[in-house]
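Recall that a protein's primary structure is simply its ordered list of amino acids. Everything else, from secondary elements to tertiary packing, is in principle encoded there. The following example makes that idea concrete.
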Amino acid sequence: MTKKRKQKEKPRGYYRDNEGRTRPITSKSVGAALAKGVVIKRVVDSDGQVVKQPRKVYELRTPRSNAVWVAHITGPDPQYRFARRFFDVFDVDVNSDQRIYYLEEGIYEYCLPGNQRVFLKVHEGGEATKISKARVEKLFPK
């Protein structure tokens, strides 16, 4: 009888430890790092791919709730009005019980509990401004 080899877990991203070394983020390493007091920050693009060289990004903090979602608006959509790419990768601030999304330049929509929708324009330098739905509709006409 041959033993099945345990497959190595693929890292979901990377973080720097307190000594400045880059470490992979896996389900085991996240818990261990949080227990040691390491602050984990990972920068992802709108596809959920880890960005190795961090760029200036906007840090969006939302309540830690299943009713919250964040999406990058990529263009018009005939059925849903806007084509969106939803984020499924985020960090969690255990001290304040918030989700943290790292957003690059672009137009985003996010929904808070109670179906409160907010549109956000993130500029190149990592600054962000709230914009109206009418303004987004002008940027992405049908």
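Residues 27-36 form the longest helix (10 residues). Residues 30-40 have pLDDT under 50 and may be disordered.
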